[in-house]
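Re: that chain you flagged

S.,

Sorry for the slow reply, it's been a week of failed gels. I finally had a moment to sit down with the sequence you sent. For the record, here it is as I used it:
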Amino acid sequence: VQCLEMTTKRKLIGRLVPCRCFRGEEEVISVLDYSHCSLQQVPKEIFSFERTLEELYLDANQIEELPKQLFNCQALKKLSMPDNDLSNLPTTIASLVNLKELDISKNGIQEFPDNIKCCKGLSVVEASVNPITKLPDGFTQLLNLTQLFLNDAFLEYLPANFGRLSKLRILELRENHLKTMPKSIHRLTQLERLDLGSNEFSELPEVLEQIHNLKELWLDNNSLQSIPGSIGKLRQLRYLDLAKNRIETLDTDISGCEALEDLLLSSNMLQHLPDSIGMLKKLTTLKVDDNQLTSLPNTIGSLSLLEELDCSCNELESLPPTIGYLHSLRTFAADENFLSELPREIGNCKNVTVMSLRSNKLEFLPDEIGQMTKLRVLNLSDNRLKNLPFTFTKLKDLAALWLSDNQSKALIPLQTEAHPETKQKVLTNYMFPQQPRHDEDYQSDSDSFNPTLWEEQRQQRMTVAFDFEDKKEEEDNSGKVKLPKLHVEPSQ
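Prediction finished late last night. Pasting the structure tokens below so you have them in one place:
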């Protein structure tokens, strides 16, 4: 039964039949919800409540135009009609003088009428996913606007006096064709979130440095080649996304962003990080994967609050010993580098639960890795390891140990052997010693790695149990020490 039919029936029996289209008191209808009702036009019955209607929801229908009568509902404070087939916004919208929130996202609207300036109470405008090419000058007279969402449109520039919208706190302009920002933008003194991702900026807009209250800034997927020191003036900045650009240098003055918690520099052309990065004491996430880094600065050890570090897909031949000072680190990824060994100090990163070192040149691991007792997932596939240190027996929480990209199970049982030269106990299985990978003749030990199966296994919260008998170990004729294998058991 469609909403229209239910409402008609409800009126005939004294409004005693509940209907999801109505929320509010029976005497005064202030909210109507016609979302997902397969409507092709605005129901006419709405107009009988034009004096009291404050919120109207027409989300996800097939409405192509808005009738003039709709704009007689001058009490409207919220008009929501995303995901329809609207091609324009009528000039009669100027009648909605009490409107505070307008959602016209996911339509085919090409422009705002200039007289939208009459909706002086507008606080939130969501107009993303429309082919809007420009904003009229009248739009900059919406002086009470606090949130503006214009993602995925066709904007090439903003009005010169855009800075008049001085109450803006959130401005999202992702996926447009912007190359510059108007100088007046510095007047947006209350702006906290600015999303300029997926545009056409070739350099950081200088005017941004004057928006001192900015807390979140997206500039990912542009054409930036460098990050100037002026960005250090954003002392309130907490989140900075510069991924997918062409950045070759990061100025040392980035240390001025002292409140920064998340710094994303993935997929750029960085050859080194400035030592001053160690001054970002509040950093919890640092992503520098897919760059051209040959080393990490020693100062990285100063990031005592860092929880996630991703330096995969670089040209690292070693890690600094100071990595051992990252006591808060939980996730560490250094896949696809040229690491031949790990510093012993990595054992001090005792809170790491996930560590991925896939596709490196590791020939051995330090015994200290056994101190990382919270490890649950460890990826060592595609390296040159001959065995694993015996201290692995201390990793009781290990749920997945990857030694091959295509291994059939998250954990392959390990057995103890004596190293042929040092006679020390080591852990091994049939997958050792690892051979350098040659894709053309790469042999897996199973048909393929099944991500779905792995996820199911992970959800079973498997743990590792190293069961050793109390009796003295016995050696067989081959000289190998017989010890129980590594087993996987469900947690209790």
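What I noticed first: The first helix runs from residue 3 to 12.

Talk soon,
D.
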